[in-house]
Amino acid sequence: MNVVSKPRPIISAVIPAHNESQGIEIAVKQIADILTACVDNEWEIIVIDDGSSDTTYAQIGALSQLDARIKGIALSRNFGKENALLAGLDYALGKAIITLDADLQHPPSFIPEMIDKWQAGAKIVHAVKRSRQQDSAWKRFAAYFINHLISGLGGIDVKNSSDFKLLDREIVDIITHQLPEKQRFFRGLTSWLGFPEDYIYFDVAERQGDESKWSFWSLLELAITALTSFTGFPLRIVTFLGFLTLILGFFVASDAIWSLLNHQAVSGYTTIIICLLLIGSFVMISLGIIGEYIAKIYDEVKGRPHYLIKGSVGIDDD
Length: 318
Known about the structure:
Elements lengths: L10 E7 L6 H16 L3 E7 L6 H11 L3 E6 L5 H11 L4 E4 L11 H9 L4 E8 L5 H18 L10 E4 H9 L8 H7 L4 E7 L12 H15 L2 H29 L7 H34 L6 E5 L5
Parallel strand pairs: 1-2, 1-4, 2-3, 5-7
Antiparallel strand pairs: 3-8, 4-6, 5-6
Helix pairs in contact: 5-8, 9-10
């Protein structure tokens, strides 16, 4: 008996969501309308509920009952946006996959332009933030600093980049099957691949629903993951601090020897205290940097899955 496979949808939209019950229904309907205008009925929307404590997943289930092209995956707990995106890419069937946020700060109105660039030959279409006036001042500063730090040290251009992207099926297969690392930075991986890419520019829209779930500490954790995933430069800082300490010690030793040869009392109490504080600080910073890399290695070698699924709607068993 021959098995007849279902036709692959042209476009899949992957939307990670965490406690987005206030705006998820509006977002899904807007994206569905735009996809229908672009590719008629050949689309699917996969919403990944990343351990929400509200009714996000229940709303996804209700939407799926009304339209089978709307699908949902519920993770067993909050695994983080990077792993939620990976879950969506694992289950997306489209020939091209668009990733975007559930709060509509990634304007779905740009989807037709992204599809046009993909059909023109781009394997990856990056949506770059032209302005982010909707964000608070501290968040704009933190994003600016972190993106430029990663771009400068990591050798990948993520300035004003976002998770709003279109990926060709070939790119998705590479990300899901050939890049097995546990510590992932989605924006960096897509820029690192080196396939033909294009860009669109957008202004960050006003957020739908309640306040952003991103805090300073979550942004800092993302920055650390990005840096340790793409560059060993922080480890070189340890070597630099070691040489700096050596130079400092040379001058202190020279001062002590000069005082001894000239029969002068060594009056270097303050100098010694400062040296001890500097050296102690350098040692602790160095241990912290090394510890971050060891922690990432530890996470990799444990071999635990990126995510666990506790339920799904509209997802075929095969």
